[in-house]
Specification:
This protein is an alpha/beta fold. The protein has ten helices and 13 strands.
Length: 331
C-alpha cells in the first residue's frame, strides 16, 4: 500500500505596517539597542496598531493571499486549524472566525494552544488528519498579536515580542517528500516560569487583576533560556541520529525565533554552520507560533523540492519538539 504523507504546498504571511524599533523602546523603558541586540538579537518588531483589529484580521489577510496564490477555492478546504495564544476571544475559536471571513463553509475548525511550539504541534496534527485519508486540503494558520499581552513597562519582556500571521496549505502526497518524522515533549514544571496569570478560570478578569497587571505575560528569563537551549538542541540532535542525517546533508534548520543565542547554541550542538540556519529574529522578534512559518515564507524562493529541513521550537508549558521534513515544491 502506498504511504500517504503530508506536505506543505503553499505559504503566505501578513506583517503589520508599524515597526517598533529598539530606539523607540529605549524611550519607553530603561534599555538600549546595544543591550537588546547583545542579549536577544532583535532590532525591530511589527506591531498591529490598527484600532479594532485583532489576530483574526491578520490571519484573514494571510489566508486570502494564500488562496489566491495557490488558486484554491474556499470550498475546497476541509479542515481549518489555527495555532494561537492570542485568539480574538476565549471562544469562538479564531479558526472559525477566519473561516467565516474568507468564506470557508465545507470544513471543521478549531484552535491549538502550545505557545511558541504551536506551529509544529499544529503541523503534525494536520499531518495525522491527512494520513487518515479523509482530508485533502488543510488550512493551517499560525498567528499571534503578542502586543496585547506585552507589558511595555517591563524592560525584560517588552523587547521580545511582535505581531504576525502566517497561513499554509497542507496536502497529501505519495512522493518522497513532506513530513517524515517528529519528536515532541512537554513538562508542566515549566508553567511557573512562563505564563499569563489572569484571564482564565483560575483568576477571571477583575479590577484587582488589572490593577496588579496580571493580564501581561510573565517570564523568568534564566530558566526559560536554560530549558530552551537544552530541549531544542536535544530533540534536534536526536532526530538527526534517528534519520541518519549528517550535518552536511541538512539543507536548513528552521528554529523558533526567540533568542539569537538559543538559535546559535542549537546549531552548534547539531554541528551545522550558520549558513544552514534560517534567522530573521532581528526584523520580527518573537511572534510565538508564527516564527517558523515566517522563516519558511521568507526563504520560500530559496527552498528546493526535496531539501532536508529540521523545524524546532520551544515554548510555554513547557512544550518543545522537532520535525524532519523534505520540502515539497520549487517556487
Amino acid at each position: 500500500m502506498t504511504k500517504i504523507r503530508a506536505t506543505i504546498t503553499g505559504i503566505e504571511a501578513f506583517l503589520p505596517d508599524y515597526v517598533l524599533t529598539n530606539d523607540e523602546l529605549s524611550q519607553m523603558v530603561d534599555t538600549t539597542d546595544e543591550w537588546i541586540m547583545t542579549r536577544i538579537g532583535i532590532k525591530e518588531r511589527r506591531i498591529l496598531k490598527d484600532k479594532g483589529k485583532a489576530t483574526s484580521d491578520m490571519a484573514t489577510e494571510a489566508v486570502n493571499k494564500l488562496l489566491k496564490k495557490t488558486k484554491t477555492s474556499p470550498d475546497e478546504i476541509d479542515f481549518v486549524l489555527c495555532a494561537t495564544i492570542t485568539g480574538d476571544m476565549i471562544f469562538p475559536a479564531t479558526s472559525c472566525i477566519v473561516a467565516d471571513k474568507v468564506g470557508i463553509k465545507n470544513a471543521f475548525a478549531y484552535d491549538l494552544n502550545a505557545a511558541c511550539s504551536g506551529f509544529i504541534y499544529a503541523l503534525i496534527t494536520a499531518e495525522k488528519f491527512i494520513e487518515s485519508g479523509q482530508y485533502k486540503k488543510v488550512l493551517l494558520m499560525a498567528t499571534d498579536k503578542m502586543s496585547v499581552m506585552t507589558d511595555y513597562t517591563d524592560r525584560t519582556t517588552c523587547p521580545l515580542f511582535g505581531d504576525a500571521a502566517t497561513a499554509m496549505l497542507v496536502e497529501p502526497t505519495t512522493e518522497d517528500i513532506g513530513i517524515i518524522d517528529h519528536i515532541f515533549g512537554s513538562d508542566g514544571y515549566g508553567r511557573q516560569f512562563l505564563y499569563l496569570k489572569a484571564g482564565g478560570s483560575l483568576l477571571p478578569a477583575s479590577h484587582e487583576t488589572i490593577n496588579r497587571r496580571e493580564h501581561y505575560l510573565f517570564q523568568d528569563g534564566q530558566p526559560v533560556f536554560k530549558f530552551a537551549v537544552s530541549k531544542m538542541a536535544d530533540v534536534s540532535v536526536e532526530i538527526m541520529k534517528r534519520n541518519n542525517i549528517k550535518p552536511e546533508n541538512l539543507d536548513w534548520l528552521v528554529p523558533h525565533q526567540a533568542n539569537l543565542r538559543i538559535i546559535d547554541a542549537t546549531a552548534r550542538r547539531m554541528g551545522i554552520k550558520r549558513e544552514q540556519v534560517m534567522i530573521n529574529i532581528e526584523k520580527y522578534g518573537n511572534t510565538t507560533a508564527a516564527t517558523i512559518p515566517l522563516c519558511l515564507w521568507e526563504w520560500e524562493n530559496k527552498l528546493k523540492k526535496g531539501d532536508n529541513l529540521i523545524l524546532t521550537a520551544f515554548g510555554g508549558g513547557f512544550t518543545w519538539g522537532s520535525i524532519y521534513m523534505k520540502w515539497g515544491y520549487n517556487s
